[in-house]
Model the fold of this input.
Amino acid sequence: MIQIVQGNNHRLADAEIHVVIDVIRAFTVAHYAFIQGAQRIILAGSLEEAFRFKRDHPDHLLAGEIKGLPIPGFDLDNSPARITQANLAGKTLIQKTTNGVEATLNSLNAKQVFVTGFSNAATTASWIKSRIPSASPEPRLHLVASHPTGDDDLACAEYIAGILRGDGSPTAAQTLERIRGSEAAAKFFDPGQPAFLPEDMEFCLRERSTGFVMKVVTRGGIPVIEREEVN
Ligand SMILES: O=C(O)[C@H](CS(=O)(=O)O)OP(=O)(O)O
Ligand SMILES: [Mg+2]
Done:
């Protein structure tokens, strides 16, 4: 059974698989951080926790946003375009964002937890589908669209559901149109809001086949995103 849930502050029934979706922009950023060589991404539930991790590990990089804007004292913001300019080889990031990170921290009660934006959605969906044995009873699977009201993550959740079901509906093109038209996307197309880079949308709207999924595991009580190779 596939169920789509919208929001970042939920309580989900236990499940086999949770996929938490944040297209604009947290898990597009995470995807590009791994492409840039990051080793892992710690998920922080509060600013205090993020700064405490950094104090204990000064070589880690703080990344995230509040209301979409950079956080004073952080090393990186929530821009995928800027992440592609950073050399993150072997680095650990500490991520704190409004929707994606928050939704993931409220979705840890599944046997397997994945995160994705649109850029890695097809890879993630195909990987999950390939690992569900056809003979086994259908697993309970929650797709969490982390933006509480906007259509970007919901469109991507429906796209993933279509791949999992095998009917391919909605298509990638239909999904991209909805993401472009979503509430979260509008500020990136508004010249009156120069803090939001239009290039970010190019990264959020582009599918990249990079041969890995992003899996959330708990290490020493700390939720961490790690890359898992699929090829
Ligand atoms: O910075 C972002 O893209 C968002 C905040 S907003 O919805 O764009 O204001 O945070 P995220 O957790 O990446 O959805
Ligand atoms: Mg978002």
Observations:
- The longest strand covers residues 212-219.
- Residues 152-165 form the longest helix (14 residues).
- The chain has a mean pLDDT of 96.
- The two ends are 27 Å apart (CA to CA).
